[in-house]
Design brief:
alpha/beta; about 35% helix
């Protein structure tokens, strides 16, 4: 069995054998947070019942000009936005573990993974852009962005990934492809 989500012009597939994935920003656990300006990542996931992943998906394909400010300075604004979404999601997962009426056991398990100092929280910033850079320049830019995000997430003991369909996340039973524009 496969869990499939479409988000920001992308098609995500996660094998249910290894992944439990929640489209968090659509889930009742997120909608129950009644705080102004609360932000949320797109997906919350558990891999092989031992690793927690927080996915934020962005597609700037054919929208680079209107998003120029968010992407300048190696995406300073974008990495701040992602860090804020992670911060708010972590707090909300703890709340969901205490009050969830749907998927209560999963939220409790997620909260236990989050507070376990031996478990690294993995943050995936999946950012699609128009291909106007050489492959080498794109790798350098992704590395700089990843360093910025990692610095902002230091408080949480995380491993961060900046990915796109040209630079995939190397995990078993996980696939992403672009949808036609």
């Amino acid at each position: 069995m496969t869990t499939i989500f479409e988000e920001s012009g992308l098609h995500f597939e996660f094998s249910q054998e290894h992944w439990w994935v929640c489209k968090y920003d659509d889930h009742v656990a997120h909608k129950n947070v009644k705080i102004d300006q609360h932000k949320a990542v797109d997906f919350v996931a558990i891999y092989k019942n031992s690793e927690i992943f927080l996915f934020e998906i962005k597609s700037f394909r054919e929208h680079r000009i209107e998003n120029k400010k968010r992407l300048k300075n190696s995406a300073e604004d974008l990495t701040t936005e992602i860090a804020q979404k992670v911060r708010d999601t972590v707090a909300a997962v703890i709340g969901a573990s205490r009050n969830a009426t749907q998927d209560a056991e999963k939220w409790d398990f997620l909260a236990k993974l989050l507070v376990n100092p031996k478990k690294m929280v993995k943050i995936v910033a999946w950012v699609e852009e128009d291909q106007n850079l050489t492959e080498k320049k794109q790798q350098v830019e992704l590395s700089i962005r990843n360093s910025k995000l990692k610095q902002k997430m230091k408080w949480l003991s995380t491993k961060t990934f900046f990915c796109n369909t040209n630079n995939m996340l190397g995990y078993e039973d996980f696939m992403v492809k672009r949808l036609a524009i």
